Amino acid sequence: MKQNNHLSQIDVDAYAEYIGNQKVEYLRSMAEVLQDREWAHINSTFEGGGVAEMLNSIVPLARNLGINTNWYCIEGDKSFYSITKRFHNIIQGVDQKFTLEDLFDIYIKTNQKNFENIVIKEDFTVVHDPQPCASIIHGNYDSKLIWRCHIDTSEANELIWNFLLPYINNYDGVIFSMKEFVKAGIKKPVYQISPAIDPLTFKNRQRTHEEALDTLDPLLKEYQIDPERPIILAVSRYDIHKNQKTIIEAFKKLNRDKKIKALKPQLILVGNSADDDPEGMEMYQDILQVINGNKDIYPLLNIPDNDKNIGALMKLAKVFIHVSTKEGFGLVVTEALWQGTPVIGSSVGGIVTQVLPGKTGYLVGPMDTDSIVSHAKHLLLEKEERARMGTQAVEHVRENFLITGLVEKYIKLMRFQLGIDYPYFKILPSPHR
Ligand code: UDP
Predict the structure, then answer these.
(1) Closest Cα to atom 24, ligand 1: which residue?
(2) Alpha carbons 79 and 103: distance in angstroms, whole number
(3) Does 225 lie in the same domain as 187?
(4) Which residues line ligand 1 (CB under 6 A)?
């Protein structure tokens, strides 16, 4: 088990610019009773993917509020990550196989091994996703424990769900991003909490068009991307569910339109590989084949100055596309909306809470290239419409998906779990369908 000792510092007052002084004061007052109490997070990577992205802000913010908060990461070898990636896939509907050795000799043993020299004694612990889920039994805790599931388990394969359920039902509670994700069989209290972004990070700092251009100058030069031509952007891990192939197909179709062709749009795909995702490189190679040398499509991998450049690209883009076939939430959608860029998103998982049709973007079926084309065409041609949606997009994120709101919900849950308070929000019955 590793502990993250490289976190930045955050001052909660800095959020007043985005949420107002009153909300900052409220957050502070909610945390007051938790001064010097301890909070732990356990996941499986310090870098890459939405969970690490959020913990990089949640942990320093909680510390600044006076809660002693630590972030641990379980360690495994390649075979462990190959199994947990298969868990992830099979839970989201892809057919994958496991042997008894996979589950018992590798998955469980890795969970066990991570706790050989450590007891997690923080008052309240949040265990993220399936990778460390079994540590509730095979780990070593003296803590109130919550399992936080970031993926859509609503149609999880029965075999893997039945394997995970006894672990899940040993936690004191479970959090899902959407109530629709809760599959039958959970006997512990279930809560709904949406993920969120941090407006103070390099990535999410709001910038002007000129600032974005300035930041991007080296990257655009390196890849010979012309900032005068409209940019259609997609950002995500190279992963089967992120469905980049459909975006490429839609872009090729879009370019057959005469009016659009005259604008010379370019498609930029940005992706990275996460430490706990061994399939990324293979998927990237597949994508290169689909692109087949098309000069208007730029498939970028692990870009330099990742955070600054991602935020700046999101600002510069005219349209952001995210048409996953399965999606727990899709932080990239929030990030793009926050930069004032309308999003064409698939009507899947948490994307539907972010993309409000006609208001912050458009919803389409994940494989519906024709709808992607018609909405992209509309957004590329109608500047005022784009600006109107962009303004609404920013306000939608401010109201619903900023990190301060997320930490407030965790604090309320912690107060309840530690016996300080009544529950502040509804405990959902299981299942919800
Ligand atoms: N991301 C990044 N660089 C990349 C691709 C993705 O920094 O090249 C970030 C992205 O900005 C977002 C996170 O990784 O913050 C992905 O979170 P999301 O919820 O969209 O997807 P996940 O990877 O968790 O399925």
Answers:
(1) 50
(2) 11
(3) no
(4) 49-50, 53, 235-237, 270-272, 306, 310, 329-332, 335
Residue 45 has a pLDDT of 93
- Does 203 fall in a domain? no
Q: Which domain holds residue 393?
A: 209-400
Number of domains in the chain: 2
Neighbours of 252 (CB within 10 A): 18
Rg (CA), the chain: 22
> Does residue 359 fall inside a structural domain?
yes
Tokens of 25: 């004061």
Whether residues 227 and 190 share a domain: the answer is no
Do the domain assignments include residue 363? yes
Alpha-carbon distance of 104 to 111, in angstroms, equals 10
Q: Are 200 and 10 in contact (CB under 8 A)?
A: yes
Cα 47 to middle of ligand 1, angstroms: 10
Range from 83-92, 133-142, 190-199, 408-417 carrying the lowest mean pLDDT: 83-92
CA proximity to 331, closest of 149, 134, 196: 196
Mean pLDDT of 152-173: 94
Question: How much is the pLDDT for 275?
Answer: 67
Question: What is the phi/psi pair of residue 381, to 5°?
Answer: -90, -25
Check pLDDT > 80 for residue 387. yes
* Residue 44, domain CATH: 3.40.50.2000
Query: Which residues contact residue 100 at a Cβ distance below 8 angstroms, ignoring those fewer than 6 apart?
Result: none
CA–CA separation, 127 and 327 (whole Å): 20
Q: Say whether both 158 and 263 belong to one domain.
A: no
Residues 364 and 416 in one domain: no
The verdict on 273 and 181 lying in the same domain is no
- Tell me whether residue 152 is in a domain: yes
CA 91 – CA 183 distance, rounded (Å): 11
Work out which ligand 1 atom sits closest to the CA atom of 329.
Answer: 19
